[in-house]
Amino acid sequence: MAFGTDTMTKDPILKVERLSMRFGGLMAINDFSFEAERGEITALIGPNGAGKTTVFNCITGFYKPTMGMITMRQKSGAEFLLERLPDFEITKKAKVARTFQNIRMFSGLTVLENLLVAQHNKLMRASGYTILGLFGFPAYREASRESIELARHWLEKASLTERADDPAGDLPYGAQRRLEIARAMCTGPELLCLDEPAAGLNPRESLALNALLQEIRRDTGTSILLIEHDMSVVMEISDHVVVLEYGQKISDGNPDFVKNDPRVIAAYLGVEDEEVEEVIGEIEEIEGERGGGPDNDCAPAACEKRRDLLRQHPRAERRRHGGPSRRDRCADRRQWRREIDAHDDDLRQPAGAHRLGSLRRPGHHASADA
Question: Which of 90, 248, 330, 353 has the most C-beta neighbours closer than 10 Å?
């Protein structure tokens, strides 16, 4: 296991200690520990099925963990053991809010009404649980005015002011994602948990999301814990990255440390633990050949093609599609290496002589083009 965190912690808002979650005979999370610092953006990443959403569900009360302790410490100094609280009190008392992988909103309500629903508890208290609101008492009118102002504030932050009276279900996908985050912020959280907020977004929408999250962190001091597969988002906005694989932590540190960690690279390639060093060595050998490889001088399209070939390492293919014989594995690896070499040779030919269209994956035969 690799770590790249500072030895001195600053002010952790969330501390997860030895968390384990078992579903029958399946250990989804196994002895997982990490800390999220106050005022920072902490990313939880890993391959599909690593257990990231299970960790979120334990933090926010959807699951009760089999073992472990989850401590939330507010600015006031109050501490809450989240694994012992009912799910609704985690939002109400501990001030933890979340969004989901799949967008969950009231599509028949307007955009503004979705943000007012998030302030339901405050409005109900001010209404005396219907009686004061029914007769329009001053306390309820004041609370209603404040709720609308807060909703309009987050509509402006999410660039949704012009759509305030439109049904939420009519918004484009990227706007619905921002509305979910704005709705969560209307609960006044100290910790905001986002489950794949950039999923399905195009590059322009991802940039808008990055700007919104950084503005939330800067202007409100809200700590953010996010699960994300879009590495451009993770590496641009995160202060701290934790990597999960098969329910266990394999890396923990700042973005630069994590993205260069061989275990993280191997986890995304899909190789076995005992093969990590061998596979990373092969890729580094190819990248380091001939004074650093041709990527330094190749055109963007050619560089992208070469990176695609590197990701097609036969071990990764074997992990995804089952194990062929040893002889076939050796043949696949030779073919993979030949394609990398052929690509590099093409890049050294005079301009206009590249043959990028001739590259084939292992097992692709000329007859298939006929």
Answer: 90
